[in-house]
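Exam revision sheet. Question 4 asks you to relate a sequence to its structure. Input first:
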Amino acid sequence: MKKIILSGMLPVMASAFIAACAARAGAGESQNLEIPYGNLGLNWASDKINEANSSLENDTGASLIFDYYATLLTNPYGGERQGTNYNHIMIFGANLDLEKSLGLKGGSLVVSGGYNSGGDLSDKIGNFFTASEANVTTGLMFYELYYQQNFNASFGDLQFRIGRMSMSDVFMGLSAFDYLVSGGMDSTPAAVFSNAPYTSSTIATWGVMGEVQVGEMAFAAGLYQIPKNIASPNWDGLDFGIASDDGYMAIFQGTWTPTFNLGSGGFSGLGGTYEAGAWFFGGYDMHAFEGGGTRGNGYGFYIQGQQQIWVDPSNSSAYVSAWAGAQYAPVQSIAIMPWMLYSGIQLQGLVPGRPNDGIYLSWMYGYFSSDYSKSCGYNASYEMVVEFTYVVQLNEYISIQPDMQYIFRPNGNDNIDDALVVGGQLMVSF
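Answer key, structure tokens:
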């Protein structure tokens, strides 16, 4: 499950920021100096929560899920107008190990809900790639409810899921995406959302998914229901019905996870993840920009990968990783952004005295379709975003990160000034 930001209130964010500053100051004085009560009590509270969750899992087979992202961003320059917005997204639920509770080997059940609140800074800037990943459907909602079955076969491992699920749980994600603040690339690069009825947290529909893994290769396929109201701002996830006029979306993905052993001795090798996939939807009307009307089907492709390019031979937790990818949706009459390109670099564990911190630099570029451009009333060309973020890992479960984004040609519009976005994010995951 992807990491999500905790419902942060400003006092909590302030406390976390003070703790991080104190941790960095302490690290500069002595590696053995610990902050009173462990990060102002955060370590103690985290340990107690983790102990309680572990005890519950040992006794009942049920483990609790809690992910939270809280983001505070402002644009001091550029955009249609300046402003400041706070928003957060929270996911909570449970994962029940049915082997432990009912003796069903390899079986598990996931049930979860979500809560989102706050404003969208991109409404003020007027850009396409949402400035905050925590900006999704607002309010309290039912999220996922699915059964998962794992099988061990002589040729490899099999996984099967059925129930209410989000597509992004399995498809189109790389690990680095979870730590970016911009919604343009977390947890899935954003173009697909405007070109197809793709779902990510906290929106789930009925679906079925299967995956087979043989060595370094894995192949997954999923089929998902697309209700007519999936894009409604009032979506609450409580309509469990399946209507005869619902649409569907199918996704297929191949994944390769190699380790390139370029050294000897204790060197663990350079790990990578490479994904290629295709999607198709039907029975779901998308607005056609050229000439009006709608189109009831579409398709697209994607390819992306993340690769370690350097690992400290004496410490595998310190490394440099790079990623890149592309999405393409050929049907420009309904695709707002038929082409999206993206790349980035991760510097993990390389800050002196902060072995768990990470530095991320990302770039994304989206080309608007000619049909969409004609419907805008101006020549919509492209939008590009560069993001720099530093993840300060307070402990295993909590982190804060200062963030800076620069948005070129918001929504492809020459009449809107390039925008600078600064702020920060709090992440909590148990």
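Marking note for examiners. Helices lie at 10-29, 37-40, 42-60, 98-102, 122-125, 191-195, 370-376.
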